[in-house]
């Protein structure tokens, strides 16, 4: 297999729970992809993969973790000119309120 020729910036988010928001700040238009470990492995091999995100024309972009698991963010310039500086931060979100039974 041929490895991916596109240069990219990789952020390993480790294990995150569903509902956490990831905020990605960019210096230019870039592709932002939030994906599972399995899909990141496919991406690195230039194979078909699934992701959340896409072309980020504004900054910052916020993506929400859809389910608990090991997540990765990739920023690449495929289809765009130049390079984009990027940074990332995890934004803790409040847990959903739980209904309580009346006694």
From TrEMBL:
- Top-rank taxon: Bacteria
Q: Where is this region: Disordered?
A: 82-103
Lineage from the top down?
A: Bacteria, Pseudomonadati, Pseudomonadota, Alphaproteobacteria, Hyphomicrobiales
In terms of InterPro entries, this protein maps to: DUF1883, DUF1883-like_sf
- Name the UniProt record assigns to this protein: DUF1883 domain-containing protein
Q: Which residues form the DUF1883 domain?
A: 7-92
